[in-house]
Every structure is written in structure tokens, then in C-alpha cells.
Amino acid sequence: MQEKGTISIHTENIFPIIKKFLYSDNEIFLRELVSNAVDATQKIKRLSSLGQYNGDLGQLQVEVSFDENAKTITISDNGLGMTADEIKKYINQIAFSGATEFMEKFKEAKDANEIIGRFGLGFYSAFMVADQVEIQTLSYQEGAEPARWICDGSTEFEITEGNRTTRGTDVILHVNKESEEFVSQHKLQEILDKYAKFLPVPIKFGTKTEQEPDGEDEEGKPKYQSIEVDNFINDTHPIWTKSPSELKDEDYLNFYKELYPFSEDPLFWIHLNVDYPFNLTGVLYFPKVKNDFDFQKNKIKLFSRQVFITDEVKDIVPEFLMLLHGVIDSPDIPLNVSRSFLQADSNVKKINTYITKKVADKLSELFKADRKAYEEKWPDIGLFVKYGFISDDKFYEKAKDFTLLTNTAKETFTLNEYKEKVEGSQTDKDGQLVYIYTNEPAKQDAFIQSANKKGYDVLLMNSPIDNHFISHLEQKLEKTSLKRVDADVADKLIKKDEAPETVLTEEQSTQVKSIFEKAITKPGFKVELESLNPEELPVTVTMDEFMRRMKDMAAMGGGMGFYGSLPDNYKVVVNGNHKLISRLIQTDNEAKQTQLAKQAFDLALLSQGLLTGAELTEFVNRSVNLI
């Protein structure tokens, strides 16, 4: 048997394209070839179960080996095998309708996965690293003869009689000079660990040394001897392929440690298992996320039939759940995927919606089953929930019932509970409900105490996402606004009909304002005189809530860059009813007046953390002189 021919791809440009344009992703050749071998073994097993193959299956497995001297890598299986006719059908005829169409489509391709997936080039990815590829195969069919196929990277091929004596296929890569790094134990192990760790058929790669008991020594202590055993690199039945009823918490935790060996234990997990309207299995873990928002997003691994595809799952998993860890496996997502494919695929959109629902249902279940335990987890899961609350309307519809607000007294409330708590005392004269919050309780303590004295409750909003969460609350909650506790003096945070009477005459008010305007030399500070509770501070420095919030968002990269470029402007509120102001008026010495005004202003700056450097030193020295 001998035959020569031309591979039917209708273009001689295919191999240069594979070698040149797919080079950056060249390690996927091993994933493609091992996956093909796994498919072949699974198919023979299926034929056997259907009674269409009656021979001995033997131990079904795939073996990867290499020869460093010959510069070859071999992928062997004991699956279906192929006849010479099947080689011609499956290997020689790549499904292109013509060179022009191929080149047109190729222009749109963004990466190797997309090219391979779109044009059926799985086997031909071998030429990314090889300048010659050989197949030795023997079909399972009765009376089949072994066949050998060889191609040197041109469109020329040769089929001759093969030398394989057992059912299955060897794919032998004669690695090119540029890719010799792959002909090594370490590199091949690394790629197999990445892509084949959970394949459903045992993958053998060389041997490894293990210790086995070998009697006892003279002191009666156990002895061990080193033995060489086959190195199978994969777990063929990972936990996501099993039913939750078969698994214990320990199994989920052990699997998590296998995936993320240096991470803390997760808070809890969700086992995904659906077969309609798409197939999906997986396990998603809620990790402990530090409040500094410093986290890695690419921690969810996407598989297709237990073959690792990618850890960039943005279009499959909702953005706010990219903080989760775990695995997703769906045969409805092709092995070779690309970003543009994912964005357009209807199954991907359904999976995205399903995962959102499952996570929302799990959180709701935890909240209802054990609210105390849920509240204890809130510092860790609050970030997930708020992120979803902001970014996904479907999630919000469920999350509004288990989103918690925490006040400075460390009490927690649902949205409805908090409304009931404060609407009696924190509704303004126009019927608007005002929630007061702090993002830096230590720094804003004086303002918090002033608000508490008026019977106001103060929420703690100090997570990195709270700037956006606050704005979203105002959009979602009816007739409700939020103000930071230092956005104004306590008397003015919530506008009421009643107001303290002023003790200053109009002339005295003008005099006080003039004194402070002379004492304050810093730009961006506007003096206003207010009639406030005499117990309030004599001077308070505040920034308008809207302007400060826009600047905070700009600092976080929230698309408010215009506001970030504006200079800071503050309001200096002088409490005309404070006894210090009366003392100021009664002082005849203009220098003394300026000194007192400056001291009161600096105290207000100090309480806001705005007094630094030379100005802080000056304030300290002045304070010593006043004592």
C-alpha cells in the first residue's frame, strides 16, 4: 500500500499561516492532540457498550512521550484507530470551500483558538511546533491494516503501510528547531498540568518515584523503598462531574486547595448542574476578599468536556462574579473559543443568566436559613453583593432583600428595615428621606457625634465600591438621598422647619464674617455665617456632597475625570451662636481677633485631616502660645 497526494485545502498558504500567526499560542498543539486521542478512546468505549465492538478494550489511556535526542513528541492512544481511507477523509480534507474564503475569514480572527476553532484545524496545530508530522494507526475494524501518514509541512502527504500492531493511533511530531523547548520533561508536564489535569481518560506521562513500605529496620521502625511507577497526571473524575449527594464539605475544600494551594478556605460554594436548555456543571467558590479591592479576577477556569480552555471567562460569568473562584464545564461551549465567539453565542448568554440566578438563590437561601451566620460573613460577601447590586438589574431584584447596611454601632439592617428605623427622624421638610454615612469613621468622629446628638443614625460606607453603591441606592430607593456626615453641619444635613434663633445683630454678623475672611488666606474656602446649635463647633469645614462624590469617583477612575481636574472648594461654616464668636466680637484687639479666628479655622481643618506641613506646625506653636 502506497499513495501520494495533495491535502485538499485549496491553498498552499495554510501551513505558513499556521506557523506564523498561531505561534504565540503554540502550546495548545498538545491540548488539541491529547483531546483528539481522548475522543478516540471514548468512542471505542462507546462502541463497545453498544455491542458494535466485541474486542478487549484493555486499559484505555493516552500516553505522551518524547525523545530528546530525536527531537520528537509522541501522543499515543488505544482508541478507534483509522484506516487509510479514514485518514484521507479526516486528515487530508480540511473543510475549506476555497482559499479566498479562508483568507477573508482569517482576517477577522483574533487568536490561535479562534482560527483553529473556526476552521477545524485541531490536528494541524501540530505544525505550529513540528516541521514533519507522522501518524501510525490501526483501526479497530476487523481485518483492518495498519497505515502510516506523513507530511512535511507542505501540502504534500504520503500514505504507506504502517507498523502499528495494536488498535489505536500514534501521532509523532518531529519538532522544528524554533520549538525545541517543548522536547523536555518540565515543559510538557507544565502544559499537561494546565490543559489535561481533569481529562476523563487517564493521561500517562513517563514515570515518577514513590515510596512503598519495605518491612522494618532493626529498631522496629518502618522502612521504605523507592519504586518507579507510571505517572498519570490527571484526575479523571473531578468533583464537578459528581452529584452533590456524593460529596462532603471536605471534598469541596480539598478540591479548592488543589486549585488554589495558597489561598484561605472559601466562605461557601455553589455546585452547578444543569442539563436544559444547555449542559453545564461546575463548582463556584466564594473566597475571602480583602476590603482593599486588590484581587485577581481570572480565577474561574473554563472547561469543555473536562478539557481546560481558558481562565478568561468574562462573557460567560457576569462581571460582578469574576471575583469568584472555581470551575465551569460545558460541552455547549466549543473546545476552541474566542472572545468574539463568546460574545455572540446564545448559549453563553443563557449560561451567564443561569449563573447569576444560582448565585442570587444561594445567597438568599443563606440569609433566610441563618441570618446571624450571614451577617458574620457580610464583611466578606458584601463586596460581591454590592457589585452585583450595581451592575446587574436581574441580580438586584433578588439582592435587594439580602443586601445589608451596617451603621457605626455595628448593627445590620436590610434595606426595608433601615428605612423603618430612620424615616421618623431623618425625613426632611420636603418628605425626602436622608441617609447619613461615613467612609472614615475615625477621621469623621466629631461629625458622627454631632449627628448622633441630634438622634441621627450614621451608616458605615467604607468599602472601595461604596461610592458607586451610594449613587445606585439613590437611584433605586424612592425619595431617598445619601449625605456624608461631614457634608454639612449636623443642623443642616437634614433640612427641617425649625432653626435656632441668631444671637448676633446684622452688624455683628457682617463683622464676624469679615474677621474670618481676613484670617483665612487659603484659596478655595468660602465663609458662611449660620445660626446653629450653640453646642456645635464654632467653625466647620465641609465640601458640597455632590462635588465631593464626583471627585471621589474621578479618583477611582469612574468616568468623572472633568470633576477630578477641578480645584477643591470648601465651605467654612461659622456658628454665630457659639460662645467663641461672642468672645471674638468682644475682643478689641484686631490681631487677637485674627488669631482666634485662625485658631478656630485650623481646628476645623484638623478635624478633616486638611491641616498638614508648615500650617500644622504653625497651629501647634500658636496653640502653645494660647495655653
UniProtKB/TrEMBL annotation:
It comes from the Bacteria. It comes from Mucilaginibacter robiniae. GO terms for molecular function: ATP binding; ATP hydrolysis activity; ATP-dependent protein folding chaperone; unfolded protein binding. ATP binds at E32, N36, D77, M82, S97, G98, T169, R339. InterPro entries: HATPase_C_sf, HATPase_dom, HSP90_C, Hsp90_fam, Hsp90_N, Ribosomal_Su5_D2-typ_SF. Keywords: ATP-binding, Chaperone, Cytoplasm, Nucleotide-binding, Stress response. This is Chaperone protein HtpG. CDD domains: HATPase_Hsp90-like. Belongs to the heat shock protein 90 family. Pfam families: HATPase_c_3, HSP90. Residues 25-179 form the Histidine kinase/HSP90-like ATPase domain. The keyword Amino-acid biosynthesis does not apply.
